[in-house]
Amino acid sequence: MERKKFYITTPIYYPSDKLHIGHSYTTVAADAMARYKRLAGYDVMFLTGTDEHGQKIQRKAEEKGVSPKKYVDEIVATIKELWKLLDISNDKFIRTTDDYHIEVVQKIFKKLYDQGDIYKSEYEGWYCTPCESFWTEHQLVDDKCPDCGREVELTKEESYFFKLSKYADRLIKHIEDNPEFIQPQSRQNEMLNNFLRPGLEDLCVSRTSFNWGIPVTFDEKHVVYVWIDALSNYISALGYLTEDDSEFKKYWPADVHLVGKEIVRFHTIIWPIMLMALGLPLPKQVFGHGWLILEGGKMSKSKGNVVDPVVLVDKYGVDPVRYFLLREVPFGSDGIYSEEALVNRLNSDLANDLGNLLSRTITMIEKYFDGIIPEPKEKETVDTELENMALELPGKVDELMNKLLFSNALTEIFKLVSRANKYIDETMPWILAKDESKKERLATVLYNLTESLRFVSVLISPFMPNTPNKIFSQLGIKEDELKTLESLNNFRGIKPGTKVEKGGIIFPRVEFEKQEAEPEEKHTVKSEAKTKTDEQAKPEITIEDFAKLDLRVAKVIGCEKVKGADKLLKLEMEVGEEKRQVVSGIAEYYKPEELIGKSVVIVYNLKPIKLRGIESKGMILAASNDDELTIVSPLTEIASGSVVN
Ligand code: MSP
């Protein structure tokens, strides 16, 4: 019989060397789902990749003095490494710079043009470079980009447009008829009420102001920009419009596109309309998950080691990091991330509950049965309770996984772990062991514990791919057929007589050491980009609060690197008559010689502090986001010491 297919995708990632634990979230979740479906016997296609074109990349490559391709090649290699480190089991990795993808995008663009869905016109609007999005005046929020809250530029240029409006009614109907299409439900309402029902404007799909993109074959000064290029990856990766489109025929439509909430709109409006225009079926579901945020606001790699997935995996191991990501936060919601919470989870769920269950079980089998798993005998009520809970678990997990409720699925699995630990306390094997006539009872109890551990191991394997084998090997389970989902319809899987092999502690407890924030972090203003949902907005202040700040223009008259501190520059400032010294964490962004002679704005009345033993009086204002930082400077020359207000 032909196996059922399951096609799951992550978004393709922008090449950034600053991928943080939040980015790993979508990919780890997709991986858990792909692994679960493989376990359930599906023929799975799991796709991820990188989204490599656009003005932003071009600018960055120029800044670095390398070609855009060279620039992305290096970063893509580190992204692939990261997925390897996190045990991501993707079947394919697509790069939008791959030749086959480029050709498919060109064919799609031409097809849509030939059938009249793409037309040429002139665009005048507001452009957000970081998001690579055009906005109309009324879409802006406080004159800023409605997606990321950053500054936008007024732009006018000849462009091709895609007739989104033509398909809007069909899409509304599709969404209404298929409540599973956009999940969670709240995002569906948002799309219908905020975007589709008010009416769609046609979408600008080409640019002429930069060239790092896919050329439009029939009008070479245009490059296809962003969404037609990026979204097509989900079908080009399967060979759509290529000589061999067998995988496309086999796996399309996708079962799930997993995306972060900020790109739900592209995936549930632009993408389905592109597919409608191409005459292709729509994906069965787009699931928009929430964000991991830090207590102080938006996550970014500049927040240091606490968010660096490589550092975290190195410190805590890949399985605990994956477990934490999927357990801590219900998948549709935003969640606060902290390293302390990760350590707490590791200690309580993994070291205490699961780790202890295994070591207690193995120790008792060694002690009371010379390391041989005994044959279970008559059941008592407490045994049946444990057994029933185990036997019902796969069904519950299946239901939750099919709704992408990872955290709930893990909660259910760990209920069995807790139940088994409680079972030990209730049955008190150490008392049974004292009485020879209770030997059979003791055998039953210990056998049931090994089976419970087997059930847990099979079910956690999609989330923690390395842990099950450690458990199986301690339990002496070698047969692959005892590691399958089907084998969980029987609570008598393990053969009595199997020899256990005590191994090391699978999850050593860890002590959480609170890291002091890097001093240079504190010393530059991080203007967190404001998002639509405003998670990181600071509380409102009064004009009196603001008046407490003494901001002044200062001129940099000398500047050098601070020895032994990669991020720090020591700047000599002239502020009116006064000379003062400021230390600032901007060495990664500016060379000393670039700053000498420049006017900047400083917080003049900030309490002096010492950084690496050097006194710093005042703080330089700079704007920054995840990837970039720029010093705030007066637009025209003005005397140093001038007051800023
Ligand atoms: N290139 C686009 C997607 C195009 S898909 C056709 C893109 N790339 S991204 O690199 O910015 O984001 C990749 C994924 O990481 C997105 O799903 C995004 O939501 C996710 N995350 C980035 N930061 C995140 C958190 N702090 N928390 C959870 N996920 C977040 O968007």
Would you kindly provide a written description of the structure presented here, covering whatever features stand out?
The protein has 645 residues and is α/β, with parallel strands linked by helices. It is 40% helix and 18% strand. It is built from 21 helices and 25 strands. The strands form seven sheets. The protein has a six-stranded parallel beta sheet with strand order 3-2-1-12-13-7, with helices on both faces. Strands 16, 17, 18, 19, 22 and 25 form a six-stranded antiparallel beta sheet that branches. It has a four-stranded antiparallel beta sheet with strand order 5-4-6-8, covered by helices on one side. The longest helix is centred in the middle third of the chain and has 31 residues, at 339-369. The protein is globular. The N and C termini lie far apart (74 Å). Mean pLDDT is 91; it is low at 517-537. The site of 5'-O-[(L-methionyl)-sulphamoyl]adenosine has 18 residues, from β1, α1, α7 and β12.
Q: Please state the average pLDDT score.
A: 91
Strand order of the largest sheet: 3-2-1-12-13-7
Beta content comes to 15-25%
Low-confidence stretches: 517-537
Bound molecules: 5'-O-[(L-methionyl)-sulphamoyl]adenosine
Number of strands: 25
Gross morphology is globular
Distance between the termini: 74 Å
Over all CA atoms, what is the radius of gyration?
29 Å
List the defining traits of the structure above.
single chain; 645 residues; alpha/beta; six-stranded parallel beta sheet; six-stranded antiparallel beta sheet; 21 helices; 25 strands; 40% helix; globular; binds 5'-O-[(L-methionyl)-sulphamoyl]adenosine
